[in-house]
């Protein structure tokens, strides 16, 4: 699996964590369940889970915030996040038609392991993007066991990217997209903190794609890398959404998580994302820097960064989002799926040539 930095391309000024992934945030795990088969019906789909607190998130909640850049999409559990400022469950990413099943499976997973012991545990966060060009979405191929498998496989370390988990059937800037991740380390007077990002990319048009500010989507035209569909960009339902999850160990309170979630918009825009009418661009940020339980009955002491320290975190989040999106493209491979549709991967050689040519 290649990543952007394997091609000699670096984005931004802040250093990455050891894995350049959301798992660089201590205690954050990622798991995937990937479905790729053609019989009895075509499946190019799956589930990706982000599990804070090494799975104890059900009891040891995180402060969290949310931002909707454009709301043509679904992310469950957000009413409680906005009301309480708390994330009380793992986060699952999947396809549009199976949000309900994944939601139910997460509730069952928590209940069977006696992790989710109250009604709050029945409000997990599940987000989606549409994979119906490559996946037979109406086959509803994902089952509870696939969600359980993703949860059981969740681990730290390097994150598998591209055509995996919830990103299996996704399309990004008219190239094959999917799961991407990145991280940044921010050093403050109070110590160093990690900002980690994971995206499920399924958005944008070829002409909009930029890497390090270079319009590579225009430079790698449809004559070089064809597309199967021919609808005008304003009518197509191809590549219509992105889910962005930001995690950090910095001690942020919910209002600060909201502010950091908003900055995902900057990183998305740097790659060419515009938040079009039919796009579900939904962003979640959680902080593991405080420990909160719904069972608390006494006054607690909470730590928070000074607002004046946040500028560096805004920059780091934008950089990590930008690189995570490009990683989702670089890691993905050409895929053929439902009704013989093919989506081509971003050609690495053409990407490097475009960037080198623009630097001259």
List the helices and strands and how they pair.
Blueprint (H helix, E strand, L loop, with lengths): L28 E9 L5 E9 L9 E11 L6 H7 L1 E2 L3 E5 L3 H14 L12 E5 L14 H10 L17 E2 L2 E2 L2 E10 L2 E13 L12 H4 L20 E9 L5 H9 L1 H8 L8 E13 L17 H22 L3 E2 L5 E2 L4 H12 L1
Parallel strand pairs: 5-6, 11-12
Antiparallel strand pairs: 1-2, 2-5, 3-4, 3-12, 7-8, 9-10, 10-11, 13-14
Helix pairs in contact: 2-3, 5-7, 6-7
What features would you highlight for this structure?
alpha+beta, six-stranded mixed sheet, 26% strand, four-stranded mixed sheet, 8 helices, 14 strands, 360 residues, single chain, L-amino peptidase D-ALA esterase/amidase, 24% helix
Q: Output the strand order for the largest sheet.
A: 4-3-12-11-10-9
Instruction: Give the biggest sheet.
Output: 6 strands, mixed
Q: What fold name goes in the CATH topology slot?
A: L-amino peptidase D-ALA esterase/amidase
Secondary structure: helix percent: 10-25%
Number of strands: 14
Order of helix and strand elements from N to C terminus: EEEHEEHEHEEEEHEHHEHEEH
Write down the domain tally: 1
Beta fraction: 25-35%
Looking at the overall shape, the CATH architecture is 4-Layer Sandwich
CATH class: Alpha Beta
Per DSSP, the total helix count is 8
What's the Cα radius of gyration?
19 Å
CATH superfamily: L-amino peptidase D-ALA esterase/amidase
Please give the alpha-carbon distance between the first and last residues: 29 Å
Q: Calculate the mean pLDDT score and round it.
A: 93
Low-confidence stretches: none
Structural class: alpha+beta
The best one-word shape is: globular
């Amino acid at each position: 699996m290649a990543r952007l930095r394997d091609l000699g391309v670096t984005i931004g000024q802040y250093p990455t964590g050891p894995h350049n992934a959301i798992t660089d945030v201590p205690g954050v795990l990622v798991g995937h369940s990937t479905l790729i088969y053609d019989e009895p019906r075509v499946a190019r789909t799956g589930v990706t889970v982000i599990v804070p607190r090494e799975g104890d998130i059900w009891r040891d909640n995180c402060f969290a915030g949310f931002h909707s850049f454009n709301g043509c999409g679904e992310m469950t559990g957000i009413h409680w996040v906005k009301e309480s400022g708390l994330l009380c469950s793992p986060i699952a990413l999947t396809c549009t038609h199976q949000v309900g099943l994944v939601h139910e499976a997460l509730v069952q997973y928590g209940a069977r392991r006696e992790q989710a012991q109250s009604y709050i545990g029945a409000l997990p966060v599940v987000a989606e993007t549409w994979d119906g060009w490559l996946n037979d979405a109406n086959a509803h191929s994902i089952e509870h066991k696939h969600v359980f498998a993703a949860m059981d496989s969740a681990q730290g370390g390097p994150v598998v990217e591209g055509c995996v988990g919830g990103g299996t059937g996704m399309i990004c800037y008219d190239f094959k997209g999917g799961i991407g991740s990145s991280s940044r380390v921010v050093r403050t007077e109070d110590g160093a903190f990690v900002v980690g990002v994971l995206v499920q990319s399924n958005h944008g048009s070829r002409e909009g794609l930029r890497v390090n500010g270079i319009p590579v989507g225009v430079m790698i035209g449809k004559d070089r890398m064809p597309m199967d569909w021919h609808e005008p960009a304003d009518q197509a339902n191809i590549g219509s959404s992105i889910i962005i999850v930001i995690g950090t160990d910095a001690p942020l309170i919910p209002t600060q998580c909201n502010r950091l979630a908003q900055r995902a918009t900057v990183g998305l825009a740097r790659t060419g994302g515009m938040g079009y009418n039919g796009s579900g661009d939904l962003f979640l940020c959680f902080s593991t820097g405080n420990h909160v339980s719904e069972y608390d009955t006494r006054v607690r002491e909470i730590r928070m960064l000074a607002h004046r320290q946040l500028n560096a975190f805004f920059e780091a989040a934008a950089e990590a989002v930008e690189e995570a999106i490009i990683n989702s493209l670089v890691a993905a491979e050409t895929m053929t799926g439902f009704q013989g549709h093919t989506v081509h991967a971003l050609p690495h050689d053409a990407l490097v040539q475009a960037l080198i040519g623009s630097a001259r």
